[in-house]
């Protein structure tokens, strides 16, 4: 395992994702457009912050403020394993903030609040690697965002200060340190062709940059509050970003031209966005306890699901289902008709 040296410090952030209920929101809703969840996973005991669907469609990984990441069957919710940070002694706020799959579905990487990113083997829930500082010491701030490169060689992780590290998976070496944001890194996503990373932070900016050189290629300034989530279109020509200004915005990934500003999350911050694999739809969720599925080209709302304040959303590889992560301590799978 990497980072064999004793860890010398611990993070101090007490609320890693800054989540809170919007005024007037609640844990459930009777929205007539909502449908019953196909699967409700109740294995966590606190807020569920992140969800990720394996590329073979069989499993979902979820991460929670209860300090654990789980892998479970997407069809029936049966848990395969639960993993807690390997840091000893355990931190009181070792929350598992976000999770991502390796392209071959053999590993998951978990962004922990204890200042580490940990890579776990799915077949036996064994921790293989642990990433932090280049000398193996723990960061003094946690990680809130993580993304795996399409070729499986690198993991990009954003911390709660203002830096993003690109780690080589096999060695744990830091390839790039990206320091062009000025606040909490809330979202990172690797383009499908592996050439670029898009990141969003609490400085209200979204940046597109080269993962090997760290060169910034584009600054997107369409939002006017904290960024929460980002996602690429399947052909990498567009990006959708969601933030606490209550909007999800679709924009050109080269020019930065805004194509759609989605404003149908009435009164709610947009915490999560995800682009469907075939490119037709975008799913978004936020503090208004609504998850929306809408047309990526027009912004027309297609489906609405009501459950609880939403922190994460992901598509099944065949685009027939979405999974949401919520304030209600549940991860729920919904049918997309």
What does this structure look like?
With 337 residues, the protein is mainly beta. 0% of the residues lie in helices and 46% in strands. Strands 1-28-27-26 form a four-stranded antiparallel β-sheet, with no helix packed on it. Strand 2 and strand 3 (59-64) form a beta hairpin. The radius of gyration is 18 Å and the shape is globular. The model is unreliable at 1-14 and 18-33 (pLDDT under 50).
Query: How many helical elements?
Result: 0
Q: N-to-C terminal Cα separation, in Å? A: 44 Å
> Share of helix among residues?
under 10%
Strand content: over 45%
Radius of gyration, in Å, reads: 18 Å
Count of β-strands: 28
Looking at this protein, list some descriptive labels.
mainly beta; 337 residues
The gist of it:
The chain is mostly beta strands and 337 residues long. The chain is built from no helices and 28 strands.
